[in-house]
Write a structure and sequence with these properties.
Layout (H helix, E strand, L loop, with lengths): L1 H20 L2 H4 L4 H11 L4 H10 L1 H11 L5 H19 L3 H33 L4 H68 L2
Length: 202
C-alpha cells in the first residue's frame, strides 16, 4: 500500500500543477500578437520589450524568438520559431510522462499486493489449516484492498493523462497559428513597404 499511496500523492501534485500551468490564459494571452504589432508600429521592439514578452508566457517565448530575427527572411524567422517551439512544447509536457507511468504501474502494484495477500492465505492454510478463518480473511482482505487501491489511483491518473495530453496538443496548435500569423503580418508589412518604396523611385 505504501508505494500506491506515494503514487497517489505524486499523481495528485502533478495533476494540480499541470492544470494550473496549462490554463489557456497563461499559455496564450489574448491579443498578444496584436499587442506585439502595436509595439512594433508605435515605439519599436527594443530589448526590454522582448525580454518582457519572453517572460510573460510560452506564446511570448515563441513570438520573441521570431521577433529577434524579424529583419531576416521569412524562413529564418520560421526556423527560430520552430526551434524555440520545441523547447516550449517540452516544458508544456513536463511531468506528463511521470503521470502516464503512474497510471501504468499502480494496477501492477495492486496486483502485487493481491499476490502477496494470496501467499499469506495459502501460508496460513498450510500452517494452521482451514479451521481458523481470521488469518484467511486477513490475507484475502489485503489482496482485495491493494487491488482496489491500485485501480483507484490508476483510473483517474490515466484520465487526466489523456486530458492533459489533449490540452497540450490544442495549445501547441494554437501557438503555431499565432506565431505564423505574426510572421505573415510582419513580412506582409515589409513587402508592402518595399513595394511602396520601389514604386517611388525614379
Amino acid at each position: 500500500m505504501l508505494p500506491i499511496i506515494a503514487c497517489s500523492v505524486i499523481a495528485l501534485a502533478i495533476i494540480a500543477e499541470r492544470l494550473w500551468t496549462l490554463q489557456v490564459r497563461r499559455v496564450l494571452p489574448r491579443h498578444l500578437v496584436a499587442q506585439v504589432w502595436t509595439w512594433d508600429r508605435e515605439s519599436g521592439l527594443d530589448q526590454d520589450r522582448l525580454r518582457e514578452l519572453r517572460r510573460g508566457s510560452p506564446l511570448g517565448q515563441i513570438l520573441a524568438a521570431g521577433l529577434v530575427n524579424r529583419h531576416h527572411s521569412r524562413e529564418v524567422m520560421k526556423e527560430s520559431i520552430e526551434d524555440t517551439g520545441r523547447q516550449v512544447i517540452h516544458e508544456l509536457e513536463r511531468y506528463l510522462n511521470t503521470l502516464g507511468t503512474i497510471a501504468s504501474i499502480t494496477p501492477l502494484l495492486g496486483l502485487l499486493g493481491t499476490v502477496i495477500g494470496m501467499i499469506k492465505v495459502f501460508t496460513a492454510i498450510t500452517t494452521m489449516g482451514v479451521g481458523d478463518p481470521a488469518p484467511l480473511a486477513g490475507g484475502i482482505s489485503e489482496a482485495l484492498i491493494t487491488t482496489a487501491a491500485g485501480l483507484s489511483v490508476a483510473i483517474p491518473s490515466l484520465m487526466f493523462y489523456r486530458y492533459l495530453r489533449g490540452r497540450v496538443d490544442m495549445l501547441v496548435m494554437r501557438m503555431e497559428q499565432e506565431a505564423m500569423r505574426m510572421v505573415e503580418v510582419m513580412h506582409g508589412e515589409r513587402e508592402a513597404e518595399a513595394a511602396s518604396g520601389s514604386g517611388q523611385m525614379p
